[in-house]
Branched-chain amino acid transport system ATP-binding protein (Petropleomorpha daqingensis), 236 residues
Amino acid sequence: MSLLEVRDLTAGHGLLTAVREMSFEVREGETVALVGANGAGKTTLLRTLAGAHHATSGSVVFDGADVTHLPAYKRVRRGVALVPEGRRLFGDMTVEENLLVAGRRARPGPWTLQRVLEAFPMLEPLRGRRGASLSGGEQQATSIGRALMTNPRLLLVDEVSLGLSPVAVDAVYASLAHLTDDDGATLVLVEQDLGRALTVADRVICVLEGRIVLEAPSDRITRDEVTAAYFGVDRV
């Protein structure tokens, strides 16, 4: 069953069209990796799905309901959560405070402070640390945990591994694997690392200049094919 249905979605910034008539679906419990070069439209797409950016045309249907024109906070209440690029934590607040502030208007569901700390064990000893003092990996884990505190059905994560050390990336992905394997979470991830995307995702969608140029199950596509689509060439 499709949890998310995107139909002919177009969105832009002023005269610049960043997302061009995109159509795809995400099934409940599926992990989809969204890949593409910088400027391909990935961040604008996620922000439009989350309601942080307005669609010019097309539709976004979540759990059978058209949410195209709903503001972001109402989409959160329906179960859509965005982990934005750059994490955007409250720097003067502690890890625990960053998590709790997101949970104040959460949907009913299983995610509590304690459960988030169990899913991201690296955060337990950091509960009293201010957001601004955390490493990139710690900030990313906190940002994902903050989104989980809203009890989402669909988690949108922008630039999972950008700017993180290999060790931090492994830790973040280990926690994400816990969400998908144990909790059946539905994820759409923007990922620059093609090898990682093919390893963790059920399906890969490659975007070029605002359009989907490749969509395939990750076990039926090669890295060379994704790379070719990534750069808009026939082969590499």
